[in-house]
Amino acid sequence: MSAHALPQPLTVHIDLGDRSYPIRIGQGLLDDPATWDGLPSAAAALIVTNDVVGPLYAERLRLALAGRYGQVHVVELPDGEAHKTWDSLNLIFDALLSRACDRKTVLYALGGGVVGDMTGFAAACYMRGVPFVQVPTTLLAQVDSSVGGKTAINHPLGKNMIGAFYQPLRVVCDLDTLQTLPERELSAGLAEVIKYGPIADLDFLDWIEAQMPALRARDPLALAQAVRRSCEIKAGVVGQDEKESGLRAILNFGHTFGHAIEAGMGYGAWLHGEAVGCGMVMAATLSARLGLLPLADVERIARLVAAAGLPVRAPVLAPEQASRFLELMRVDKKAEAGEIKFVLVNGQGAAVVRGAPDAVVAEVIDACTG
Ligand code: NAD
Ligand code: GLY
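^ thats the input. predicted complex w/ nicotinamide-adenine-dinucleotide below
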């Protein structure tokens, strides 16, 4: 398959009043000074990255930003979901305070969702709030985590439990960075792309099915369209419900089961996107058991998840598998007074958020395991 270059960058706007911002999507953006035009100047900027992405891209970003700031500092965090912790967050504060960074300092999150979520949380907290820019370098971060202002770290008892809503000034998705992404991480990102189809856009679901080989081959044009449409859908939802008082929860399709898998296996054992992929099959199966979704649609979602290179069967978390899942899912942020809420789909490109009887959920867990 021949790769197609993207003729010019695309922009998706996220409309949140005085906190609105653009998402720029294109090739060669990192080194292009025009990418950073219009961002506030300051005495200092801090690029927050990790020990995998930093060596690949931090120096290029530092050079591109050098004219805008007196000093551009870089801090490299340890890589991985297991390091989405207070200790890593403190490394960002240590870097800011030890360099006497003031409240105009701009933070740049250069990396995947882990770096993005932690940098955003650090930006929300440092001196009660400093500006930050998302520069996502994984597919997952470009289509989901860099957009919408959810920031967090994990707690041993629950994923993303400590955090804040805090919007970036801009999101810059340089598609070229996806060329160095490990295969497994690309697949994990595809889970969050697939997610948007069943909850919001069946035409997009058709498109993903048709384009899966091009997406897995990292064709820039296919990637650009996937990132653009995913961001458009997410921007539409977040624009209506920034702080998840209702609608935004549909973006968590597959996440209730998925978060249980991540926490139950130990953070980092299954990638977030892998857990979400399998979680979507489980949530679709639950939707069918509750009479909302035809079985053929469950099979369609499972086929697409598998075609993306993702697991479709749940791992065994404990001998009492269903009880362990239920226990972990009760810690989910959508749970209310101990009642677990699931994002269920209807086969028409829409989702509802509601509870389900434990016995039915337990049947689904058993049917989807192994
Ligand atoms: P990640 O940040 O751990 O990145 C995946 C791996 O790829 C890491 O090892 C990273 O170092 C490496 N990497 C990143 N970019 C690379 C590149 N261009 N080339 C080579 N290697 C690269 O994981 P992720 O999948 O990006 O993000 C998952 C996280 O995002 C989870 O913590 C999840 O909770 C969070 N998330 C947040 C939101 C939100 O709305 N804030 C939404 C979805 C997911
Ligand atoms: N990834 C879910 C959300 O941003 O709400």
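The chain has a mean pLDDT of 96.
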